[in-house]
Specification:
By secondary structure, the protein is an alpha/beta fold. The chain contains 11 helices and 12 strands. Helices cover 39% and strands 22% of the residues. Helix 9 links the parallel strand 11 and strand 12.
């Protein structure tokens, strides 16, 4: 008698746009793992209840997206070092003993996509990280560990950027990296890599930084993907930068979550190629 597949999901609000179910289904197909993965829209004030309901229904793990990444660590029995540093989690694992483990695979996914898939080295580079919410918090540590020379965190609310810089200051010192917090209007330097970690793309808002931050030929990366990222990508291209959306980050962070849950590393590069081909068909 065959067992029903193990149940996983992505929780967010909004969540209808998420490509995670397609990615995990393909991972399962290619690795022979038996899983079912769905989207779950949870109310803005209902994340904790949504997680409890999912566990009660036999859920084994859950990815967390906007706007719940900073809420997720509070539900965990155990948090990875990445979560403790970021104060944000995107991957929850529900263990058989009832404990809940929180990890953050966003930064690993971003660094893997930039360095492996885009072929851009981060070592010794100057990086602008736009935003100071859960998405930015999740990637700052792994960016520092990738050996960047300097990171400026730019955010409309300076206090949030300063808090993020402060929580990562010891790691930056260890890595011999400079870390600075600014409001977008105060940006005067230009950068090798610009990463948009704000929700501006989701809301169709203007690009939150001036074009003067772009060095000719620099990488301009939006963590969003698909139509949501198009405005940022067009802006980057118009100003001589190399645009890239977050589809590769999505696939790579999903691969890290899949490895955590199943103990098997899926062929992420193959799945990314397939998805890019589908998008351009």
């Amino acid at each position: 008698m065959s067992h029903p597949p193990d149940l996983y999901c992505v929780m967010g609000n909004p969540v209808a746009h998420s490509r995670s179910p397609a990615i995990h289904a393909r991972f399962a197909e290619l690795t022979g793992e038996s899983i079912a993965y769905e989207r779950r829209l949870v109310p803005m004030d209902g994340f904790a209840q949504g997680v409890r309901d999912f566990v009660a229904q036999g859920g084994r793990g859950c990815n967390v997206t906007v706007p719940f990444k900073t809420d997720a660590p509070g539900l965990a029995t155990e948090r990875s070092e990445r979560v403790q540093l970021a104060g944000a989690a995107n991957t929850l694992t529900f263990r058989a003993d009832g404990s809940l483990y929180a990890d953050n695979t966003d930064g690993l996914g971003l660094v893997a996509d930039i360095t492996r898939n885009a072929g851009v080295s981060l070592a010794g580079r100057d990086v602008l990280l736009v935003g100071a919410g859960g998405a930015a918090a999740g990637v700052l540590g792994p960016l520092l560990l990738a050996g960047v020379r300097h990171i400026t965190v730019a955010n409309r609310t300076l206090a949030k950027a300063e808090a993020l810089v402060q929580s990562h200051f010891a790691l930056a010192t260890l890595q011999n990296s400079e870390l600075l917090a600014l409001i977008p209007q105060a940006l005067e330097a230009n950068f090798d890599v610009i990463i948009n970690a704000t929700a501006s793309s989701l809301t169709g808002a203007d690009v939150p930084v001036p074009a003067s931050v772009l060095r000719p030929g620099c990488l301009a990366y939006d963590m969003m993907y698909g139509p949501a990222a198009q405005g940022f990508l067009d802006w980057a291209q118009r100003h001589g930068a190399v645009p890239r959306d977050g589809l590769g980050m999505l696939v790579e962070q999903a691969a890290e979550a899949f490895l955590l849950w199943r103990g098997v590393r899926p062929p992420s590069a193959q799945v990314l190629r397939e998805m890019q081909q589908q998008a351009s068909a």
